[in-house]
Amino acid sequence: MIYIFKEILDKGADATINHYIAESEKSDPKNKNLDPSLLEVALQLIKYSWNEHNNGDMWNYWFSKPNGYDIKAYKDTRLAAAEKLLKYLSDKEEKDMKLRNFMYEISGFINALQGNTDIAKEIL
After folding, report:
1. Residue 115 exposed, middle or buried by CB count within 10 Å (0-12, 13-18, 19+)
2. Which stretches in the chain have pLDDT values below 50?
3. Beta carbons of 37 and 8 less than 8 angstroms apart
4. CA–CA separation, 65 vs 85, rounded Å?
5. Overall pTM > 0.90
6. In the chain, % of residues over pLDDT 70
7. In whole angstroms, what is the distance from residue 38 CA to residue 17 CA?
8. Contact 106, 123 (CB under 8 A)
9. At what angle do helices 34-53 and 77-92 cross, to 10 degrees?
10. How many Å apart are CA 124 and CA 116, to the nearest integer?
11. Gyration radius from the chain CA atoms
12. What is the model's pLDDT at position 32?
């Protein structure tokens, strides 16, 4: 996973995310490590964005705190990259409905965070 973040820094988020989605699409079904790594990358991108825009405060939504739904909207390219990964992974996931629903929920959160409340409501 660290190599993916290094590549994001070196080549940019869009190029890196597109590259790894393409790799996932053509990967051998026996290689089950890439997609979980992409999910972890998406979650880390959200966390890094949250920390920067909220002065390092705890991600209250993640920990189900009462003020977790008190969202102050902002735009961040890391959120867009995370959303792209989650969309790809949730569309691909057919077996584990809990995982798929989790990815939908986090996608909804990302959209709410970016001020796209109509899209967030549609996803959730």
Report:
1. middle
2. none
3. no
4. 26
5. no
6. 97
7. 9
8. no
9. 150
10. 12
11. 14
12. 78
